[in-house]
L-threonate dehydrogenase
Amino acid sequence: MSLAVENPGRGAAAVIGLGSMGFGMAQSLRRAGLDVVGYDVAAAAVERFVAEGGRGARTPKEAAGDADIVVSVVVNAAQTEAVLFGPDGIAEAMKPGAVFVSSATMDPAIARNLSQRLEALGRHYLDAPISGGAARAAKGELTIMASGSAEAFAAARPALDAMAAKVYELGDAAGTGAAFKMINQLLAGVHIAAACEAISFAAKQGLDLQKVYEVITASAGNSWMFENRIPHVLAGDYTPLSAIEIFVKDLGIVQDMARAERYPVPLVAAALQMYLAASGAGMGRDDDSSLARLYAQLSGAALPGIDKA
Amino acid sequence: MSLAVENPGRGAAAVIGLGSMGFGMAQSLRRAGLDVVGYDVAAAAVERFVAEGGRGARTPKEAAGDADIVVSVVVNAAQTEAVLFGPDGIAEAMKPGAVFVSSATMDPAIARNLSQRLEALGRHYLDAPISGGAARAAKGELTIMASGSAEAFAAARPALDAMAAKVYELGDAAGTGAAFKMINQLLAGVHIAAACEAISFAAKQGLDLQKVYEVITASAGNSWMFENRIPHVLAGDYTPLSAIEIFVKDLGIVQDMARAERYPVPLVAAALQMYLAASGAGMGRDDDSSLARLYAQLSGAALPGIDKA
């Protein structure tokens, strides 16, 4: 007996994109009793979802055709547009009145554009970028920064409740959720760069780095990112939990938005150059704390495990 | 009956510099039972200390002559050097075996130099930069990042206990405390600039700034400084709790240290330019959250109370 039959009132959902975030979100939806179909461009990801009890689809259209809620967990605006309006786009295959829940981080102007085009076809769009890593996705404990019409929120509610510990309702139009996410990414990206600039400078001076971590996390110089990322540097472990390329992308979006609005972002610009340099130096797919290795390489500072890099 | 007679074993202390921090530290020393003499270049500050029950001195030498512990709470390295070795310097007037507790933020190399010169004269030097505002100074709840010889720590102990909630013992030579403080200032200065870059960018996009504060302080983009300073921006109140000029000074020290060590600090450099621009635009003595006003002026973003600025 399927979960959907056990909880018929919960409705049917499709998840497009079964990466580290989407897989966990799909499992959270199943756990909450929704009938979930998963799709990914990588067949292996779909097979894994099926092996763990989910239903798989061969195309986005096949996944979306019967869904009341389509949750899109792709990487960026271009992929989101392709899912909706590309050659195999689902926009017209979606059920009238169904909702598209878009979680990719993107320029708010693009979110507004996608929303307007989809709503013109009689489907709802919820601008719903997510925060929180794969572990929280798997537990259904994400933070979602959402905006959209009352109808979009109402249609998406069972999925939001299943996937998130906290849903911020930020406005009645797409774009506002995206804008809040970009403010968060601006700060997060700059703070990682600052944390790495600081810890490698401490190393350059020969300070006890464990002690630096202890003192800073108890002082006014602390940030969420310093506290979260510097342990990777102290362990010399650059296994990607979140990769350099994510901030190449996200600070790039912030810089482009700011340029279009004639708003100066000198800190973002400086940080973005460091992410680009790290990527250019071959660390693009490594953990974003790899900026500390970049600073060490540029200065001769000695970091733990640096010769393993 | 004086406090010193009530607690003769606590010893005698001098406080050089009775500004917002030094005044509170002197009061904390008195409350702990030390016999405290205060000196400041501003006679009014000494008079206020006397009016509240302290003892005043007319020169630094007069203050330091009988002290077991001299706490220096001046602004920078130049003033610290002048207190010790200037025309009216106290170095040779201090009792042999007494300790000089230096709280100014400075380049570690200068702290090492001052320490070596004072210790050559048979007096101890404790490198002891402080963290925490005037309110915590008054309550004896500062954080002190200290380094120095065992003798310097032992001699300074009654004052450290009286002034601080937390004393980090970071090494056996002057300079290490200063280096830790500079790492903290690097992060604090960049985080204030990032917070202001972000909140004014949110304003430029017309976002609900109270909601931005709520979302960011619960998200990965948070920092101690975002949480502490952005309420000033939301209130439109730039009364200086800590002024722009403090970070003109402190990020200047970091940039100079880094240049000397051939260590690149692109985020510090970008942030320092913004503090310099704010100072140049007339906000040097205003609260450091004034960087938000600078971004608003540069972009036309509308901040609360901005036309009062």
Summary: The two ends of chain B are 50 Å apart (CA to CA). Residues 1-8 of chain B have pLDDT under 50 and may be disordered. The CA atoms of residues 36 and 54 of chain B lie 7 Å apart.
